[in-house]
Amino acid sequence: MTGHRGVQSHLDAAPLARAFTLVEILISIAIIAVLISLLLPAMAGTMGSARGFKCQMSQRAVMFDLQLFAEGEVPKGDDDGLAGGRFRLETFQESQYRIDEFWGWPGRTSVALPDDAGNDPLRCAAIRGDVTLRSGVPCSRGAISPPEAVSYGFNVRLHVAEDTRNGGPSVRPVLLSPRIVEQSNVPILWDVDGALARDRAVSPVFSGPSLESEVVFAGDRYWFPGARHNGSANFAFLDGRVESSRTPLHEGWAWDYSPVR
Known about the structure:
261 residues, alpha+beta, 5-stranded mixed sheet, 4 helices, 15% strand
């Protein structure tokens, strides 16, 4: 009996486990929610910075390919044989996308990127959705769709030049010299807002501000940079560097440069 009373006394002395009250649970949930709300913007900013860096690396790779293209280190397609090694910017684009004379999927009339082999050129890491390519169509004539899935636009003034010599609004094609890569302060490629280009009924593959234009480029019709990297857009230059800016027209870059005068 004495031993039994000792065990019972020990059990009576043991502390009882106390359950959380509903109020305490609600307070804990509220604290967790506050912490998450504080952390999410920082996490989003970090992820955005990572996508922006990946986009910059993609643009640098394009500039490296452009230098090889300009120097004649790789085939220039329809531009092979032009005097002085000249070439069209659109031809370089087509070599990057592997469309028109560079069509990379024999026996198919269209292909969605990424393709079965993972090919997905000229892609910004922040852009989602497939890009569809059509065979036998030039880059500027609708070979790439939908517009909102297009990541990058090329400098339209390196593609066409305004021609007002006959008194009417018109454009003439631009032929680039291999020495174009020496123009270190000329932006050639940048993030674009393809949805805005679609709304303006223009192709997003070429872009540029109107500046003083009252004809072809007037009204900023072709100006739709995509500020998708924490409010900034990435801009690649002919010398291979890539810069990020929220106000690209105030950076002192040579936006008005044209090889045709």
